[in-house]
Each structure stands twice: as structure tokens, then as C-alpha cells.
């Protein structure tokens, strides 16, 4: 084999290795506000909001990229309405990306439980959504004889234990483990999903008959 062939082979091997994509760094701009504070604005952000709670006194500060700043203090007589609006927004946001009604209810139950314990925020990563949650909970309840609330508590404990150990376990990965078609819960889930599909209002036999009539 010639040196030229060796060089070609070398280039070919190198070309076969995909180039490592560098993660784009978000640019930040430090702005001096009119009150003298230094505030960082990342990317294209034009406004930043910060809530300050001091007992029953609640205020929100708005910082703008041009250095302007505004502060709104919630009037005591409107505190209840603002709290209700915030709770509605906070709980409603938990259902984002979830379309099934039963799954939406599971998501709302989860955030209400967390907020009732005084836990305002929880890290959400890809795979932490509630899609498919309700059928998994119902299947586990049927197989074990436990109540839905007991099953929810059990599943949440598994997620909490994994997080405490520094292990990566998403809600979706946990649900998926119960969907193994060879497992007791997997078989129940398949049956439940077939039953739900049969109630969709679409008759597949009628559709097949209609397709045959068009030939």
C-alpha cells in the first residue's frame, strides 16, 4: 500500500469521527440600574422580575435592560386576590404539556401536595412530566389492592429516594418500568388502554367497511 493510500485512509478514518459540537454559551450583559445596582441580563432578556416577601408585605421589582427599575407593593386589601391568582397560575403551570384529563388531575394533585408541605419549587427535567401517570397508578392499585393515594405516595417516595442518593430517575422512567408487557402491571395497563381506546367513539370496523366500499 502506498503512502498516498495510507494518507487517504487516515483522512477517511478521521472524517468518520463526528465533530464534537461545542455548547453555545449564553451571552450576558451587566447593566447598571438607576438605583446603582449591577444586574445581569442573559441572552435577549429585556426584563427581570424579583418577588420580595417580608411578613405580610409583598412587593415585586421589575428591572429593565435599559437600567430602569420599578417596584410594585401589593396593597393589603388585595393581598388575598393576588395570592389566589398566584396559586391558580402556579398549580395550572404544572399541567403544561399534559393532554389527558386523568393525567392532568394527577399533576394537580402532586403540586397541591407539594405546596401543602411548604415546598414551593422542585427541579423539573426532561422526562418529569405526568403524561401516562393515571393509567400506571390505576394499574398498580388494581394489582396490589392499594388505594390510588397510597400508590402516588409510593411512587413519589421512589423519586425522592433516588434524588437523595444523587441518582437520575425521572417520573417517566419510573412509569415505564411498570409498562413491561410481561409484568402484571404491564398487562393491566394494556387492557386499560385498549378499553379506553374502544370508548373513543371511533368504530374501526365501520372504518374498514368504508375503506372497502371505496375500492
Structure described in brief:
The chain has about 220 residues and is of the alpha+beta class.
Structure, described:
This protein is of the alpha+beta class and 215 residues long. The strands form two sheets. A three-stranded antiparallel sheet has the order 3-4-5, with no helix packed on it. It has a two-stranded antiparallel ribbon with strand order 1-2. 10% of the residues are buried. The protein starts with a helix and ends with a helix. The chain folds into two domains: 47 residues, no CATH class; 115 residues, no CATH class. About 2% of the residues have low confidence. The chain contains eight helices and five strands, in the order αβββββααααααα.
Structural class: alpha+beta
* Poorly predicted tracts of residues: 10-14
- Secondary structure tally, helices: 8
Mean pLDDT: 86
Distance between the termini: 63 Å
Structure characteristics:
two-stranded antiparallel sheet; 2 domains; alpha+beta; 215 residues
Can you lay out the helices and strands and say which pair or pack?
Blueprint (H helix, E strand, L loop, with lengths): L2 H14 L11 E5 L5 E5 L4 E8 L2 E8 L4 E5 L5 H15 L7 H16 L16 H12 L3 H17 L6 H7 L6 H15 L5 H10 L2
Antiparallel strand pairs: 1-2, 3-4, 4-5
Helix pairs in contact: 4-5, 4-7
